[in-house]
Amino acid sequence: MIFITQLVYVKEGQENIFHQFEDIAIPRISKYNGRLLLRVRPTENTVIEHHVDRPYEIHLVEFDTEQDFENFKQDEERKKFLHLKDQSIKSLLLIKGTKL
């Protein structure tokens, strides 16, 4: 089991484009033995302390194997809409981990 945490920074004014991409990408996770465990949109009131910019969203996803995650990234249907991701995301921090 691997865990993927993403801090997603969206370009100002491109939130709807980002949502269009997520509407395609998120349902595809389960096709590759993955599960979206948590999707959070932190606000200034919910962040207690930070030393990085507050992300637009935080995602926590698990996949059964690293290969499942790689297969998800190569999904042909998802790849057709990567232009929406490129248009809307300013930056992304991806953290891989395992359960201890």
Brief descriptors of the model:
single chain; 100 residues; alpha+beta; Alpha-Beta Plaits; 4 strands; 33% helix; globular
Architecture overview:
The chain has 100 residues and is an alpha+beta fold. The protein has a single domain (2-97), classed as 2-Layer Sandwich (Alpha-Beta Plaits). The protein has helices spanning 15-28, 66-73, 76-79, 82-88; strands spanning 2-10, 34-40, 57-63, 89-97. The protein has a four-stranded antiparallel β-sheet with strand order 2-3-1-4. The radius of gyration is 14 Å and the shape is globular. The termini are close together.
Strand order of the largest sheet: 2-3-1-4
Provide the gyration radius in Å.
Answer: 14 Å
Unreliable spans are: none
Q: Classify the helix fraction into a percent range.
A: 25-40%
Overall mean pLDDT: 96
Secondary-structure element sequence? EHEEHHHE
Q: What's the number of helices? A: 4
Share in β-strands: 25-35%
The major β-sheet equals: 4 strands, antiparallel
In one word, what is the shape?
Answer: globular
Which class best fits the helix and strand makeup?
A: alpha+beta
